[in-house]
Here is the input.
Amino acid sequence: MQLTEDFVLKALANVKIEPRNFAALYVFRNSNDIFKALVMTILTQNTNDRNALRAYENLIKVVGDVTPEKIVSIGEDALANAIKPAGMHRVRARKILELSKVTLERYRGDLTWVKDLPIDEARRALLELPGVGEKTADVILVNLGKPTFPVDTHITRISIRLGIVRSRNYHEIQRAWMSILTPDPSRYLEIHLKLIQFGRDICMARNPRCNICGFKDVCEFKKLTER
Ligand code: SF4
Here is the structure.
């Protein structure tokens, strides 16, 4: 069966989104600031959003306001110490410091102008910043109201299990979801967030809860494991 938008919406109807469980979204909604959201996404890489948010809130206690100037002024050791709850704090501190320096040197500490660029130029500008990869750029872009669909590890796993893609290729998975959904940034953001929450609660990496899943009648993984 070909997945339709209606089917996806029904299958995910009971998935609730709590902004604090999506650290980058939470910081962006509260600040409307691209630099702060980028710092937050570096803190969320390979850790959970709760630890990343604790690290970010610690950082606010130290610097007052998370700006490139303040981060450069406290230096690597104090930065690493502040963001310890996220883990890998030395590596993250170096990335955040590098991002801060480049934002200051190239753009005088201000990334607001990225909002007004067409999506391809905005993506290029973001990808040129240190520590920013495809997923991070897409998270920022969709939060800016631009039409793109960020893909994380949960969405990759779910897409393969459902059988809508055959590979883990980021762009292939992105295209697959964008072709199913209405081309609207708010729809892309809604389903991106719901799929992540669904991957945390129902379609987990180990022991997915297929018996209560809204996709169970169309899921290839379910059919294979029932044989
Ligand atoms: S049926 Fe199972 S494997 Fe398939 S999407 Fe649902 S929880 Fe995941």
The mean pLDDT is 95. The CA atoms of residues 56 and 83 lie 7 Å apart. The chain is about 60% helix and 0% strand.
